[in-house]
Amino acid sequence: MMSALYGLILCGGRSLRMQQDKSQLNYHGLPQWQYLAQLLAPLTEQVFLSCREDQQLNTELTVITDSVGDAGPATGILSAYKAFPERAWLVLACDLPLVSAQSLSLLIASRDVSKEATAFISSFRQSPEPLMTIWETKGLKRLDEERGCPRKTLLKADIALIENPFAIEQFNANTPSEREEALKTIMDAQLPR
Ligand SMILES: Nc1nc2c(ncn2[C@@H]2O[C@H](COP(=O)(O)OP(=O)(O)OP(=O)(O)O)[C@@H](O)[C@H]2O)c(=O)[nH]1
Asked: Which residue is closest in CA terms to ligand 1's atom 31?
């Protein structure tokens, strides 16, 4: 039987390139962690925020504080695995401002098709976004055993690359100019703001 799917929003980065906390940035009329939580809420059993120990977010969501590793996204993912080892996780980086419910639903639907896969990664023309991924418990076990880098673990055979129809969904806003670019895309496409 498939494990219940939980949502995890990675918020614990240092945002050194952006120079302000990326999880708090506003692209759609509310902080990005909240926007992503709204997308994930109807699609998952429960949504959690993944934060550094010294990070204060004003939220009613349950926070999973980093408890393992030396920082980086894997720390957040493995801390969630340690806290709830029987679950599958839809993991999203907070710096994906153009992600939509449609593409997340596609990712989730693929779980019914490929029962063997240990992870389902959003991919545009073969280019994967490891921080827009469903991790099955088996995949997380492997990431844990390898003390892992998500990208390296995900290069292993039993993963499924799920083609995302829209390149912009994987757009990563790491710098102030990438933030401007994302805001312009939202304006031009009249995406919800
Ligand atoms: N929980 C947790 N999340 C992290 C950690 N490091 C990065 N992330 C998250 O992983 C995603 C990708 O982060 P990066 O862009 O690689 O790094 P960053 O620290 O956010 O940004 P830079 O300082 O500019 O490199 C973002 O959603 C971050 O919030 C960490 O140590 N703990």
From this structure: 71
CA distance 120 to 163: 10
Ligand 1 binding pocket includes 13 (Cβ within 6 Å): yes
Distance 1 CA to ligand 1 centre (A): 32
Domain count, the chain: 1
* Confidence at residue 56, expressed as pLDDT on a 0 to 100 scale: 84
Is residue 7 a contact partner of residue 90, using CB atoms and an 8 Å limit? Answer: yes
Residue 130 beta carbon below 6 angstroms from any ligand 1 atom: no
User: What pLDDT score does 190 carry?
Assistant: 67
- pLDDT mean over 9-35: 97
Q: Which residues pair with 135 in a beta bridge?
A: 89, 119
Q: Which CATH number does the domain housing residue 56 bear?
A: 3.90.550.10
- Predicted ipTM? 0.99
User: Which range marks the domain in which residue 56 is found?
Assistant: 5-189
When pLDDT is averaged across residues 151-177 and rounded to a whole number, the result is 86
Position of tokens 């990563």? 172
Tell me how far the alpha carbon of residue 158 lies from the centroid of ligand 1, in angstroms.
Answer: 26
pLDDT for the residue 191: 58
